[in-house]
Each structure stands twice: as C-alpha cells, then as structure tokens.
Amino acid sequence: MRTETAEATPPLGIGFGDNSHGGSASAVPELGLKVKCALLVNSIGGGLFVTAHDCHTSGEGVSIGIGRPVPRHEITNILSPVLGASMEWLPPNLLAQSPDEICWWIPPSRRSLWFRVGRKTMRYQVPLPGLVLCAARRGALRIFATKGDRPGRDAQLYHAPLMNIDSNGFMCFGNIPAPQYGLAHISSWESVLFDTCFVHVNHQGTLLRPDPVSTEDLLTFWRKLKGRRTFRKKWRPSPDQRPGDCPP
Predict the structure, then answer these.
(1) Of 167, 132, 129, 170, which Cα lies nearest the Cα of 151?
(2) Do the Cβ atoms of 65 and 55 come closer than 8 Å?
C-alpha cells in the first residue's frame, strides 16, 4: 500500500508481511508509527462488511492478523478518536438513534396543516395525535401515530391519519429535497411534514373505516376537526410496527 505525498516529502511505504505492496517496510518503525489495527472493507454477494485485523510492527514492516467481523457501532467507536467526535446534547423527545437513523416523538398538539386542492391552498388549525418520526441518513422519513404518553419500545404504532404517507409510513417528499441528517436538524425534518401541502392519500387505510379512505374523505375528516382542541378519533394500527422497529 503506497501513500502519495508532495514531492518534497519522502513517500511512506507500509509493507504487509512480504512487502509485496511496495514501498519501504522499514519506514514504519523509523518514523515511530505504531499500527494497531487495520479495517478492511469486504464485498460478498453485492453487500459490504468490515473486518478488523490486529497488526504487528517489526523491522521488516507491518504484518496483519486474521480478521473478525465488526458491527457498525464498534466501527464508530474505533474511528471516533480519529474523527474527533464530540458530545452531543440529546433532545428530550428523542426515542432512539444510531449512526444512520433517528427516531423521536412529537406529543399531541395543535398545528397548522396545509392542503392543496387544484389551485386552491387551505390551512386548517387542528389537533394532532402523538406522532413518531423516524429519519434516515439516506433521506427517508417514516411517520406513525401513537396514543397516550411518550411511547416505549413496545408501544403500538398506528397509521398516521395524514396524506402523502404510504402504508409503510414513508412520506412522499415530491420535489422537496431531504433535509440534512442529524439531531441538530430535527426541526427541518418536521418542517417537511408541517410546512408543505398535503395533496393526496398514498394508501386507503388512513382511518378506521370499513371502506377505502379517499383523498376527499381525509380532507373532510380534517375539515371537521378544524378549530377543535383535542384529537379524539380512531385510526388504524400499523401491523407489526413498534417504535423499536420504526427506523427505516
């Protein structure tokens, strides 16, 4: 393995065992470098996984040991001293997080919802149930409804009685770009929900009714709630969904 540098700086060669990767194997001990671990990205069946290998430095170079699979959280722990990860304050409504997903709760509240019918835009001030939002680093947002206080891992989730959300909870952004990922940008993800116009239903089970729910049905539902202070309606549970399964 060879590291390319500016012409004024001698190249650093790191050999593995037989030094077949080129460079001067003796450069490592001469520079005082101690290679502790090597992370290798492996490909199998179209997927990727990382293995960690203990390394040993000698006068002949660096030898790499047998690898072991590394879970994602351990990769973060290994790299955090290099990346300079800092402490991050957790918002009180955060339910769960990982390097790639954030899941949080919005308590029942009164909010403005925007609707667009043809060329007409309407704003309804309505009561909402508690909502669980799950944002993914890859740009996806899932939204569910919940009853009662702050939900635990095994709480029942429900289909949010909202438009632009499919039966799996994924919200359609339309032509709106996904917000930046991270705890500091939770409010931007909420804006995708509350500051854009609802246009149509994305599945027909948003309400607990025997017949399929149309866009007009859901619009009428919210029109009747306009001006009320509390949300006291029934809606459909999301099959086999719990907050612990929520992140996309």
Answers:
(1) 132
(2) yes
Q: Count CB neighbours of 1 within 10 A.
A: 12
Are the C-beta atoms of 40 and 67 separated by less than 8 Å? yes
Identify the three-state secondary structure at position 144. Answer: strand
pLDDT of residue 15: 40
Higher pLDDT, 179 or 32: 179
Beta-bridged to residue 130, according to DSSP, are 146
Q: Which residues pair with 110 in a beta bridge?
A: 127
Q: For residues 57 and 128, which has the higher predicted lDDT (pLDDT)?
A: 128
CB proximity list for 29: less than 8 A, separation 6 or greater: 57, 58, 59
Closest CA to 162 of 119, 106, 118: 106
State how far the Cα of 176 lies from the Cα of 165, in Å rounded to an integer.
15
Q: Say if residue 219's pLDDT is above 50.
A: yes
Q: What is the pLDDT of residue 190?
A: 95
Helix (H), strand (E) at residue 78: helix 72-83
Question: CA geometry: angle at 124 spanning 121 and 128, to 5°?
Answer: 135
Q: Give mean pLDDT, residues 28-48.
A: 76
**Residue 211 and residue 10: Cα distance in Å, rounded?**
75
- Between CA 5 and CA 14 the distance in angstroms is 14
Q: Do residues 231 and 222 make contact, with C-beta atoms less than 8 angstroms apart?
A: no
